[in-house]
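tl;dr need the bound structure. longer version: we got a ligand (heme C) that a collaborator sent over and nobodys looked at where it sits. i said id run it. heres the input, straight from their email, havent touched it
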Amino acid sequence: MKLIRVGLLFIVASCAQQPNGTTDAGPVAAPPTNDAGQPIGIADLTGYGDSAYAPDPANPFFVSLGTNDRSCATCHDVATGWSITPAGLKARFTASQGLDPIFRVVDGATSPAANVSSFTSMQTAYEVLLARGLLRIGKPIPAGADFTLAAVNDPYNYASATELSLYRRPLPSTNLRFQPTIMWDGREPSLAEQSMDATLGHAQAMQTETDAMDEIVAFESEVYTAQIFDNGAGDLTGLAGPARLVTQPYTPGVTGPSNLFGSWGNATPQRRAAIARGEQLFDTHRFRITGVAGIADQQVSCSTCHSVPNIGASATGLMLDLGLSDAQRRSADVPLYTFKSSTGATKQSSDPGMALVTGKFADLGRFKVPALRGAVMRPPYFHNGFAADLAAVVQFYDDRFDLHLDGNDKADLVAFLEAL
Ligand code: HEC
Ligand code: HEC
């Protein structure tokens, strides 16, 4: 059956109608409202986020297409920036007594063999999902790889070379027009193939229908998400916000700085100036990176890698190993694998990332550079949820590379990330 495609883009964030819609206005500490006085946007940790898209509950994105009651929206929830958060998951777990469709043993549990026969056993089976919002992706070591799996330390006694268990955050299914690579490990060649694999895998469908997949791709390709309101700085839509993303040009390969908040350099309140200073640091503060597989040792700024202007994905499709899956950083509640190259070198990691796509030892631990818009809506961060909040992200970079920033600078950088 052919479904009707929504042709008109409806801007949910009616930015022009906000009482605080100019950049000169002072902040309002109340939710932004439209002309009719109805609140717009969805509250998050530091303000309100919103998405510009064509709302269409009949789109197959929101429909169960498989055998386990899940839709794409089960894990890509507009309320949390088209991803999931531990707080939201805990609320869903309690309200549904563990029966919400996200709690399915296939990839929601620590292993497909986990015991989910009682509420108590479900609490254990879904503990990694509840703690950090991680889904289990099962992937084999590809045929012809130049490395082998020398040892597995899996607390759930399931993983092997035929199916490694990899625990990853759902990347947000929004702002996709600006993404040169799809999935953390870059494994999907197109959104069309991604939607088929997601339907067969996450939703456990027996088959997929081309029309439905086309409708999903058309829908998700026209979703834009960003913060619209900051509790300290007030309205953000004058300078940023999702409506502006709808028309933002994008040329693959073209890199550039973030240039949203420059006009707030001397603005009041303080929070506006802090956001502007943070953006300046993101673009221009240089620090030295070493030992990152996928990029040479060099002086960089944040926007060297987060280089799609005002989005933060990598315009050149960088795939990098920041070391987040290394033995010393990986959390003890996920497996630790020992990989051995054909030349005898070994590396320990909880997630080989791109190496399971290319079969190359040199690609172990390499992941894509995620987009940063709307990030505050969807903690925790990095592929494995290593950083609980955006301050922890900045602290990770400081620990790993030594940013040479004082506490005020770090707070400014966080304020900027929170305003995206
Ligand atoms: C059970 C949870 C779950 C369901 C259901 C689900 N996804 Fe995802 N999605 C994820 C996870 C986890 C990732 C990241 C996995 C990885 O990179 O290995 C992801 C990644 C994605 C990405 C990649 C975004 C990017 O920036 O690279 C897109 C697009 C996406 N999903 C769309 C969909 C669509 C469309 C559906 C429905 C057909 C769907 N997802 C169903 C969990 C889910
Ligand atoms: C060398 C390239 C590089 C530089 C420089 C860099 N990043 Fe990243 N960033 C990445 C990669 C790669 C990831 C994903 C890593 C992973 O999950 O394994 C990432 C992830 C993130 C995330 C998490 C997003 C999410 O959705 O999980 C944030 C936030 C972030 N970076 C902010 C920054 C800030 C702020 C700076 C400057 C202090 C910075 N990055 C510098 C490459 C870089």
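gonna send this back to them w/ a short note. Residues 111 and 359 are 24 Å apart (CA to CA).
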